[in-house]
TrEMBL record:
This is Aldo-keto reductase family 1 member C2. The gene is AKR1C2. Transmembrane segments: none annotated. Keywords: NADP, Oxidoreductase. CDD domains: AKR_AKR1C1-35. Residues 19-300 form the NADP-dependent oxidoreductase domain. InterPro entries: AKR (IPR020471), AKR1C (IPR044482), Aldo/ket_reductase_CS (IPR018170), NAD(P)_OxRdtase_dom_sf (IPR036812), NADP_OxRdtase_dom (IPR023210). One of its GO terms (molecular function) is trans-1,2-dihydrobenzene-1,2-diol dehydrogenase activity.
Length: 307
């Protein structure tokens, strides 16, 4: 199956491929790995690449995309590229310069989707996580509706095709949706979502407002000491996922990914491992039954790996 055809239509008329490559990696991982993984993913059929200013690897990911355009594997319009506006840049006057910085790193003329990374503003500056002398994060006071207006201007300027949000709850989404003079509503909300945190209420809310839910952490989580609670169970060891995987002759990871696609969720699969990248694209080749879907729905425990 050709993943290029597997897309959902966004509320602004653009199309997003349902399976994306996540490109975040901890600092100790060499940036060159992002380059190699992205190139390989495009070669085997991935067309949706999810990255962010915060990941500090947009230069390498952009290089990978450009090299695959140069060698004729894809055209620019075949690739759906997402970047994110970081929390230290939420003041309206910083929005466009930050996107322009990402575009300069990528050496691309536009991104397909630009999203607010977190609904939390931090003090502007060179530090990604500004802290005071006691090690506490220094926040900033910014009205997200003003940030959103600056995002709309980026879309009007052609720097991004679509605009959306990430890590927003339904109340934060409502603030944008109910904003007087709203020009474009968020096309998506990217959140942690997996069988142990299935986000069914938020998914229903998003669907009712024509907002696509995009799942990160769909395989549980990379077990990163700074970000996640190490006492949580490992999702892919779950016996229910294991049994369904056995039945379909697939891996538990593919079952977890397929679950999202059948709920109408766009799913990101992060891997720098070629074997796993190749495996993940096979999620488009099989289907779960209604019983399988019900059984996986029953696994929800509201466990957040990313506290």
């Amino acid at each position: 199956m050709d993943p290029k055809c597997q897309c959902l239509q966004l509320s602004d008329g653009h199309f997003i491929p349902v399976l994306g490559l996540g490109t975040y990696a901890p600092e100790e991982v060499p940036k060159s790995e992002a380059l190699e993984a992205t190139k390989y993913a495009i070669e085997i059929g991935f067309r949706h690449i999810d990255c962010a200013y915060l990941y500090q690897n947009e230069e390498q990911v952009g290089q990978a995309i450009r090299s695959k355009i140069a060698d004729g594997t894809v055209r620019r319009e075949d690739i759906f590229y997402t970047s994110k506006l970081w929390s230290t840049c939420l003041r309206p006057e910083l929005v466009r310069p930050t996107l322009e910085k990402s575009l300069k790193n990528l050496q691309l003329d536009y991104v397909d989707l630009y999203i607010i990374h977190f609904p939390v503003a931090m003090k502007p500056g060179d530090e990604h996580f500004p802290k005071d002398e006691n090690g506490k994060v220094i926040f900033d006071t910014v009205d997200l509706c003003h940030t959103w207006e600056a995002m709309e201007k980026c879309k009007d300027a052609g720097l991004t095709k679509s605009i959306g949000v990430s890590n927003f709850n339904h109340k934060q989404l409502e603030r944008i949706l109910n904003k007087p003079g709203l020009k474009y509503k968020p096309v998506c909300n990217q959140v942690e979502c997996h069988p142990y945190l299935n986000q069914s209420k938020l998914l229903d809310f998003c669907k009712s407002n024509d907002i696509v839910l995009v799942a990160f952490g769909a395989l549980g989580s990379q077990r990163l000491k700074d970000w996640m609670n190490p006492s949580h169970p490992v999702l892919l060891d779950d016996p229910v996922l294991g049994a369904i995987a056995k039945k379909h002759k697939q891996t538990p990871a593919l079952i977890a990914l397929r679950y999202q696609l059948q709920r109408g969720v766009v799913v990101l699969a992060k891997s720098y491992n070629k074997r796993r990248i190749k495996e993940n694209i096979q999620v488009l080749d099989f289907e779960l039954t209604t019983e399988d879907m019900k059984a996986i729905d029953g696994l929800n425990r509201n466990i957040r790996y990313y506290d």
